[in-house]
Specification:
UDP-n-acetylglucosamine1-carboxyvinyl-transferase, Chain; 2 domains; 4-stranded mixed beta sheet; 9 helices
C-alpha cells in the first residue's frame, strides 16, 4: 500500500468490537514455553507481530494452530533452547522467550533484539533481574546465554518496565522458593499474564500493584485463556468518534482498563457511558482543552 487517503467531514458513529491486546498476547504466547501441555488463547488479534512470534516459537518446536481468533500452542516437543537472531530481530517482543525458557530448562540462548549493538542495552533491566534469580548471564556474538538453576529472590526494579516485569514473572514461576519483585509495572497486561500463569498452576499474587510475590512451582500445565481487550485500540476508536462529533461504542472492553483516560475525557466535556464490557463516548457540544501529564500506568 503506497498511501492511505482519508476524506473527512463526516461524523463517525457506530459500534466496534475490540480484539485482544497484542501487548498481552505476545508474552502469553511466550509463557506457553513453561507449560507441559497444550494451551489455547481466545480473542487473539490477527496482526503481523503475532505471526512473527508464531515463527519464533515454531522454530523451537512449539506446534501452533491459529484460526484467526483462537490459537492453540503445544509446547510438548520443544527441541531447542535457542531463539535465533534472524527471527528475534524482526520482533523485539521475541525477547520475552528468555524468561520462560530459562525458567523451565535452566538454560536459554536468545539473541539480543539489536544484535551486537554497542552501548547500554535496553534489556539490561531484564538481565539484572534474571541474575538476581540465579542466572549466569554471558553475552556472546549478540546472544544472551543464561544458565543456572532459577532460585527465588528479592528484586527491586530500577524502573517499572513492563517487559522486564513480564520476563521476571515467567522466570520466577518455576524457580525454587519464593520471589518478591517491587517497583513492578501495573498495566492490565501484567494482570492478564499473572492470571494466565495462575490458571496453569502458578502461585502469583499482587499483579496490578507495585509489588508481586511468586512462589515457585515444579510444573505448569496447559490451560485455556481469553486475552484481555486492547485498551489502546479501544481508546483510539473512542477518540475518533469524539473528534468528529459522533458517537462510538466499543464492545468487549472493561472500562476499568482505561480509568484515568476516561476521567480525562470527561474533564474535556465528553459524555461517557460505562457498562460492564462496553464504553460509549460522544461530545455533541464539542470539547475543551485540558492539561495532560503522562506517567506509567495507571497514570
Amino acid at each position: 500500500m503506497d498511501k492511505i487517503l482519508v476524506r473527512g467531514g463526516n461524523a463517525l458513529n457506530g459500534t466496534v468490537n475490540i480484539r485482544g491486546a497484542k501487548n498481552s498476547t505476545l508474552p502469553l504466547m511466550a509463557a506457553v514455553l513453561q507449560a507441559e501441555g497444550p494451551c489455547t488463547l481466545h480473542n487473539v488479534p490477527c496482526l503481523h507481530d503475532i505471526f512473527s512470534m508464531d515463527k519464533v516459537l515454531s522454530s523451537m518446536g512449539v506446534a501452533i494452530d491459529f484460526t484467526g481468533q483462537s490459537m492453540t500452542l503445544d509446547p510438548t516437543r520443544i527441541h531447542t533452547r535457542e531463539a535465533h537472531y534472524d527471527l528475534v530481530r524482526k520482533l523485539r517482543a521475541s525477547f520475552f522467550v528468555l524468561g520462560p525458557l530459562w525458567g523451565r530448562f535452566a538454560q536459554a540462548k536468545v539473541s539480543l533484539p539489536g544484535g551486537c549493538a554497542i552501548g547500554t542495552r535496553p534489556v539490561d533491566i531484564h538481565l539484572k533481574g534474571l541474575e538476581a534469580l540465579g542466572a549466569k548471564i554471558h553475552i556472546e556474538d549478540g546472544y544472551v546465554l543464561a544458565e543456572g538453576q532459577p532460585t527465588g529472590a528479592n528484586i527491586a526494579l530500577d524502573f517499572p518496565s513492563v517487559g522486564a516485569t513480564e520476563n521476571l514473572i515467567m522466570a520466577a514461576a518455576r524457580a525454587k522458593g519464593g520471589t518478591r519483585i517491587s517497583n513492578v509495572a501495573r498495566e492490565p497486561e501484567i494482570i492478564d499474564l499473572a492470571n494466565f500463569l495462575n490458571a496453569m498452576g502458578a502461585k502469583i499474587v499482587g499483579a496490578g500493584t507495585d509489588t508481586i510475590e511468586i512462589e515457585g512451582v515444579d510444573s505448569l500445565q496447559g490451560t485455556t485463556h481469553n486475552v484481555v481487550a486492547d485498551r489502546i485500540e479501544a481508546g483510539t476508536f473512542l477518540i475518533a468518534g469524539i473528534a468528529t462529533r459522533g458517537s462510538v461504542t466499543v464492545n468487549h472492553v472493561n472500562p476499568d482498563l482505561l480509568p484515568n483516560f476516561l476521567e480525562k475525557l470527561e474533564e474535556m466535556g465528553v459524555t461517557i457511558n460505562r457498562q460492564k464490557n462496553a464504553i460509549t463516548a460522544h461530545a455533541p457540544n464539542g470539547i475543551k482543552g485540558v492539561d495532560v501529564t503522562t506517567h506509567p500506568f495507571p497514570g
